[in-house]
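the two lines:
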Amino acid sequence: MTEAQAGVFVEVVGVTKRYAGVVALDGVDLIVRPGEAICLAGENGSGKSTLIKLISGVEQPTTGSIRIDGETVRRLTPRQSSAAGVMVIYQDFSLFPNLTVAENIALSTQIASHDIMSSSRKCRDIARQTLARIGVDIDLEERVELLSVAHKQLVAICRALASKARLIIMDEPTTALTAKEVRVLLSIIRKLKEDGVAILFVSHKLAEVLEVSEKVVVLRNGRKVAEGPASDFDAISLTHHMTGRDVAETPPSQLPVGTPVLLEVNGLTRAGAFEDVNFTLRKGEVLGITGLLGSGRTSLAKALFGLVAPDTGTIVLEGREVPLGDPIAAANAHIGYVPEDRLTEGLFLSQSIVRNVAVGRLHAHQNLGVLSLNALVAEAAGWLQRLKVKAPDIEAPVQSLSGGNQQRVALARWLSRGPRVLVLNGPSVGVDVGSKSDIHAIIRELAGEGIGVIVISDDLPELIATCHRILVMRAGRIVDEMEGGSVSEEQLSVRLAS
Amino acid sequence: MTGFLGKDFWMRNETLVALVIVLFCVFAAISDPNFLSVTTLSDLSRASIVIGILAIAAMIVLISGGIDVSFTAIAVFGMYASTKLALAIWPDMPWPLIFVMSAGIGALLGSVNGVFIAFFGLPTLIVTLGTLSIFRGFLLTFIGSQRISDLPPAMRDFSRGVLARGTTEAGYFYSIPWAILALVGVVVLTWFILSKTMLGRAIFAIGGSVESARRVGINVKWTQFFVYVYVGALAGLAGAIHGSMGRMADPFSLVGTELSVIAAVVLGGARLIGGYGTITGTLLGVGLIVLVQNSLIVIGVPTTWQSVVVGLLILLGTGLPAWRAKHAASGNA
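prediction for all of em together
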């Protein structure tokens, strides 16, 4: 080991990975030192997932090598990698919903030590010690399925620590967290770094973790396009490197005076979820609704589309009252809803891309109950083209698409129905930066055509960039209203939390 | 409903099932004062032995995230084949050997399920539906379709063996058979595997999430393989006990009862999605099903209503907690 290599934990040297002729990674180098946090940024398809797979031993590089503690490991296996202390926390956390917190934390340790018997005392001890190490208190006997997302993430971190992690790779660590939970996470990351644990954040939404990171590495199309101290980067320059273009977004211009009202919501109330919600939406207006998790924004979004039945109140669309709590009536009234969780609520994952769009138009292409399949597919394909869904084959299952393209498919389904009001819940959750600005452009275009768009989100820059007005919810009530163009992110976040 | 009994009291299947059992007994005791007696208890426990062992087997499969409908075919195969073999080679074979043989044949047949499910990755319901039919057909075609009432003497001896016997004050005869120890043994062994060994933790973990189990380094294939072999062995044992207690090796028996066994397990709180299930719950579920099958007549319900009652119990017993859980979940967000 030479002097320069001393203190290097993992070193990726000139690694290239090809899958059936497609180059996923092209000559990438990466050095990870103990106690160092690195941001690995890149859009979907940039090669960052491939790089994780190589470091964790799930895949082998085509050329190049991986060194651990200065020694080149030929054909690294997942077992060798985790034995060396490389732990990956996937976006879904890979936890066991049916087991307790203690069991989840201790399980991999017990398996790694080839235990035959399972001692519940040992299990609790391991769990208690690791939780104490990050200074967090979670009920050891609680089943993980009952935990919040943030707590699940902490359990996953503890599990990695219990297995003597020296490098924790976190895939999309902040996507599902609220601003407050992100702060808790960052303070824990700082503690881990003091303990000499290295962290590799892998994400396309990294601005939040920049402050605890030493180094930023940006991948684009399988190549390393930027590398440097974290202090040299900010959200804008990261985006620039990730997309290779400048994504500057301007808030929408004011609606002309006298634009007719499209949707009126009066006194909408559901006990325990939201209370006395009143607002109007004008033709061509983009209305943002924001609030912390638990403020009732999601329940309200669902209520607008009839998925949640309000106790009292009315929803009036162009002078006609829309029956409450009835999604079919809402859809017939030309209200569209794109849910936050595309995977479980919005798409038929194993069905083809084109079918996912066409399903919204079955009624329009039938004659006496017989479908005219050609017309249906042709129309759906047209929408996919219009929304620039990048799919080599529209017959492929929709789950094969990236997050951004999946969101476009969900949008295409509703657009083909000619909606008057479109409710978008978290339109860019889990979507990379480039697709995000495309989705924002689509929102603007739709509003330009006179559709009323309601964007429900806690992504403040997104709201500021797309909305004419922003409503803030707190404890189920609308407590504030702001003009989209005039408010800054800081002002908005203050109003959100106060 | 947060009462003095804790917040998830009414969400637990065990509580509901225990409550229904108590209610049932109260009604039965009112209509027939002799119902609450040692005789009833011994009759019911006798009837619970085979279905109890099978239910424990079915529970493990459900916990591991699968479903097995072939265990009755395995049980009857093990029972009939080992009886016939014993009669052919050594009629005086001691009963423990016959039981071990039946369990061994069961384990072998279970390993067929295990290979298809664990190593070829086929869906468990499809595989076991197939093997249910194959095992049964193979048994009837190649091994025999005649009922054997002339069992090896040792099997008859086993069925006569009792732990305790006597006559109640009201003049009713009761006896508690040795076979109950087999159920106790299976319960203890299974409890030990599930809660004291890493193998048991692995079974729960796989039921919770196969992908996560793979990622933490659990040997998913061998764990699944073990599950189906163990289930086969338990089924073989249950079959042999069934044969000797009924004093007949009937190749047409047992098959057809798999759904009421699974019903008992589901009533006891095991979930079809995998990862959940307790022995206490399963035994309570078995108790309730046996009670309904044997004592419905006591509270004045015609026996033809049996399957309706079992169905209602499943709908209510598993539907109610699920419905409540769903409501609790949609309340927040």
